[in-house]
Design a protein that fits this description.
Chains: A alpha/beta (285), B alpha/beta (109), C alpha/beta (275)
Helix content of chain C: 25-40%
Shape of chain B: globular
Strand content of chain B: 15-25%
CATH architecture of chain B: 2-Layer Sandwich
Shape of chain C: elongated
Number of helices of chain B: 3
Largest sheet of chain B: 5 strands, mixed
Helix content of chain B: 10-25%
Strand content of chain C: 25-35%
Number of strands of chain B: 5
Distance between the termini of chain C: 11 Å
Number of domains of chain C: 2
Low-confidence stretches of chain C: none
CATH superfamily of chain B: Dinitrogenase iron-molybdenum cofactor biosynthesis domain
Number of strands of chain C: 11
Radius of gyration of chain B: 12 Å
Low-confidence stretches of chain B: none
Strand order of the largest sheet of chain C: 3-6-7-2-8-1-9-10-11
Order of helices and strands of chain C: EHEEHEEHEEHEHEHEHEHH
CATH class of the largest domain in chain C: Alpha Beta
Oligomer: heterotrimer
Number of helices of chain C: 9
């Protein structure tokens, strides 16, 4: 089995578009969306049958039992996150601000504070002839490497020895990205020719290098800035990573997303994405 | 010598887990006694800092060798210089241990 | 007025909109709260005044420590570990809750300061620019964002807040103090999906809200959504290669008359005629 992870550092560079068309080209049977904060792959994955759906629990949060509380205010004084409010003669936890550290539970002299489970998101498994795993983190729940790991784990048992597996990765360089990198054979980085895109690309490469993972780079929307495109290609070559191709800015790409379909196979966009795919596949076979 | 491996199922016939900190089980093998013990990973559901708890587990078991496919920054930081870390192969636990003993595994770090 | 500029996802033009909105409104301030990947500085160039942002982390007195393990058991973020004969601290996991210090039975834990990033300030043609940058390897930039927001409280003029992407806690920290949310969206199925997410967030905080469509293409998907939910469309910025090029090079596009008027109208819709 071969596992490919598509990442970009910066959001909005075209990761998901690439992932969905790669799924089409490779006839991948198993794939996952690891961007749990803003998942999009389900919108064009074409697998609709939900086989399993379950809650994802993050760190427990504190809860004040009003029947026991003696209104001493120690909890409010000890909370470093300003997560305890005092209104109408009652102390309550502000859920959005509570980080679940447990300090208030500890300091409460009458044990009026308990932990309660906090639903931080939802994890889904779709199954038809294809298997697709995805999740959605709730608002304000921050980033979660654990949820990404769960998204990947729930398809483990479905993967057969000769499967080609595709993971659409999360943006950024933090904990979820690191979690998405485990067990992959190759990381394809989708870069964008802008000053900010380049600085983000370099940051993500640093992260991938620390795990000794094989890296390939492609450029999306290359024609929007040809000088910076050249700068990226030079950078990739100097550092001896594999450069697998560039894709222009095409209306067809946007159209295909909006119509929830793959790129039409006589378009320029199709040819360019296909070429990137072919070059990527060569590195992983 | 104590060898630790992160595993998917329990026992010496398990495959190695892709993740160290989020492995389902740990297999702890004592070469002198030729005995392996299986531990459930208690930190599996921890949202934060699982790497640290894992390193704590490994060190508190006085491991000499860790065989794993990858290792995160936090665990590495704690294990560096104290435990030798080798890269696992796609084979089962038992075979990974004998490969290590035959000097066939590559050092990860 | 404090105006937060948001989008569910990166790469939709959040920085483009906030930088140019700030440039268009006289004497306004620009706050870059995207401290993980701050890009505002690429547009407002200059010599920034830099100050460190610090948080409290535990300091263990190993002579006093009796290795009871209470601190490491208490810490829900696993920022402390008792390994064989020593308690170790992992500053990047610490949330500065102060719990370990409270539970230590022998008073072996005190607090020390740790730098998690910087906050930078600049006066740029009458505009106050405040940005922040989180150090690589840190897990959360919320503390830095709070510092930026705190600084902006002294500002009497209009303030534009360039928020981090997504809908996590750092976004919440940036919009809590704002009066108005500008949601930036691209007219695609993805863009709509991300917009829905961030609109929900602005509703939670009960903020006044408007939409800017970036890379407008004639596709009405966002307009229809706005109509259904009674959200005002503030502006539509058409896709244009020249604009995209200038923006990618870190140029303020409203320095060009052609784009200035688009942003002038946008500003007026938000804050009234006195820009």
């Amino acid at each position: 089995m071969r596992k490919l992870l598509i990442l970009s550092g910066k959001g909005g560079t075209g990761k998901t578009t690439l992932a969905s068309n790669f799924i089409n080209f490779s006839q991948a049977r198993v794939f996952a969306d690891c961007d749990v904060e803003a998942p999009n792959l389900h919108l064009i994955s074409m697998v609709k049958n939900v086989k399993n759906r379950e809650n994802y629990y993050g760190l427990d949060k504190s809860f004040i039992n009003q029947d026991i509380c003696i209104n001493c205010g120690l909890c409010k004084d000890s909370c470093k996150f300003n997560a305890i409010s005092f209104e109408n003669n009652q102390y309550t936890i502000v859920k959005n601000l509570c980080e679940g550290c447990g300090v208030c539970n500890y300091v409460c002299p009458v044990k009026a504070i308990d932990f309660v489970k906090s639903i931080d998101g939802e994890i889904m498994l779709y199954e038809e002839d294809k298997i697709f795993s995805t999740a959605k983190l709730n608002m304000g729940s921050g980033n979660s490497g654990l949820l990404v790991t769960k998204v990947k784990q729930q398809i483990q048992d479905y993967i057969k020895p000769n499967d080609f597996v595709i993971y659409d990765g999360p943006p950024g360089i933090g904990c979820p990205v690191i979690a998405s990198m485990s067990g992959v054979d190759l990381i394809l980085l989708v870069a964008e020719p802008s000053k900010s895109g380049i600085s983000d690309l370099k940051r993500i490469i640093k992260t991938a290098n620390s795990f000794k993972l094989k890296i390939a780079v492609c450029i999306n929307k290359y024609d929007l800035n040809k000088e910076l495109t050249k700068e990226i290609i030079d950078f990739v070559h100097t550092n001896k990573y594999d450069f697998v191709g560039k894709i222009g800015y095409h209306d067809e790409i946007i159209k295909s997303i909006n119509e929830g379909r793959f790129l039409s196979n006589n378009s320029m966009a199709y040819k360019e994405v296909k070429k990137v795919f072919d070059n990527t596949i060569k590195l992983i076979l | 010598m104590i060898i630790i491996l992160p595993t998917i199922t329990s026992g010496e016939k398990s495959f190695i887990s892709e993740n160290l900190g989020r492995a389902n089980f740990f297999y702890v093998y004592d070469t002198e006694k030729s005995i392996g013990e299986v531990y459930t990973n208690k930190n599996l559901e921890q949202p934060h800092g699982v790497g640290i708890k894992t390193a704590e587990f490994i060190l508190n078991h006085r491991a000499d060798v860790l065989i794993t496919p990858r290792i995160g920054d936090k665990s590495l930081d704690l294990l560096k210089g104290k435990v030798k870390i080798f890269k696992s192969t796609n084979k089962i636990v038992k075979e990974n241990i004998s490969s290590y003993l035959n000097g066939e595994l590559e050092e990860l770090i | 007025m404090k105006i937060a500029v948001l989008s569910g996802k990166g790469g939709t033009g959040k920085t483009l909109v906030s930088v140019n909105l700030a440039y268009t409104i006289n004497n306004s301030a620009y706050l870059d709260c995207d401290v993980e990947e701050p890009n505002g500085e690429l547009f407002f160039k200059g010599d920034y005044q830099v100050a460190n942002v610090e948080v409290d982390i535990p300091l263990i007195d190993h002579d006093k420590c009796i290795l009871c393990g209470k601190c490491s058991d208490f810490c829900r973020f696993n920022a402390l570990a008792l390994i064989i004969d020593k308690v170790r601290v992992f500053p990047q996991l610490c949330h500065s809750c102060g719990g370990c210090k409270i539970v230590c039975p022998v008073g072996a834990i005190s607090e020390k300061k740790k730098i998690v990033g910087v906050i930078k300030e600049l006066d740029y043609q009458g505009h106050k620019i405040i940005t922040g940058e989180m150090n690589i390897k840190e897990e959360s930039g919320v503390k830095i964002i709070e510092k930026i927001i705190e600084k902006s409280k002294e500002i009497k003029n209009h303030v534009i807040i360039d928020c981090p992407p997504g809908n996590g806690c750092s976004v919440m920290a940036s919009i809590r103090e704002s009066d108005y949310c500008v949601l930036v969206a691209e007219p695609t199925v993805f863009g709509l999906h991300n917009l829905q997410m961030v609109y929900e967030l602005s509703k939670v905080f009960n903020k006044k809200t408007g939409i800017v469509i970036n890379k407008a293409s004639g596709n009405q998907i966002i307009n229809t959504y706005a109509l259904d939910n009674k959200i005002e469309i503030l502006a539509e910025i058409p896709f244009d290669k020249k604009l995209s090029y200038s923006n990618s090079m870190g140029e303020i596009i409203t320095k060009d008359e052609k784009y200035f008027s688009v942003f002038e109208q946008l500003s007026k819709k938000i804050i009234g005629d006195n820009i």
